Amino acid sequence: MSLYDISAKTISGEEKTLADYKGKVLLIVNTASQCGLTPQYKGLQELHERFQDKGLAVLGFPCNQFAGQEPGTAEEIVAFCDRNYGVTFPLFAKIDVNGPNTHPLYQFLKSNVPDGENQDIEWNFAKFLVDKNGKVAKRIGARVQPEEIAADIEALI
Prior knowledge:
By secondary structure, the chain is of the alpha+beta class. It has one domain: Glutaredoxin. It is built from four helices and six strands; from the N terminus they run E-E-E-H-E-H-H-E-E-H. The protein has helices at 40-51, 74-85, 104-111, 150-156, and strands at 7-9, 15-17, 25-31, 56-62, 127-130, 136-140. The strands form two sheets. Strands 4-3-5-6 form a four-stranded mixed β-sheet, with helices on one face. Strands 1-2 form a two-stranded antiparallel ribbon. Strand 1 and strand 2 (15-17) form a beta hairpin. The longest helix is centred in the N-terminal third of the chain and has 12 residues, at 40-51. The two termini are 24 Å apart.
């Protein structure tokens, strides 16, 4: 199975295949609205604005698995992201990134990290950088600020 065989529901409930992002560099992030790291939305939006025309797609996947920090409905999440951070990059429906109900996307990402470490996601705002061919290029920790990975993105686009 490739990354492009996986589909996920958008935050508005539509099924979307990752094949729609073929040829793009992807920054995939599990997000939360009530986390100490939530201000990273600002940096993610800035990366989106800076690199979207050069082939980057930032994809946000809300997750409520870490201290219940994403309790809202889809509508509440969208309103929060728009009101506080002006988020225009794609958001998807809430998913699990660890455990028995791990979304297939996160099963794929964790099992295809270049260093071979298939570890659980440690917290909100863990990031995966995927190259234009759908291969996981890098796993980036939750505490790494989005602006710190601009050079990694530039190297792939």
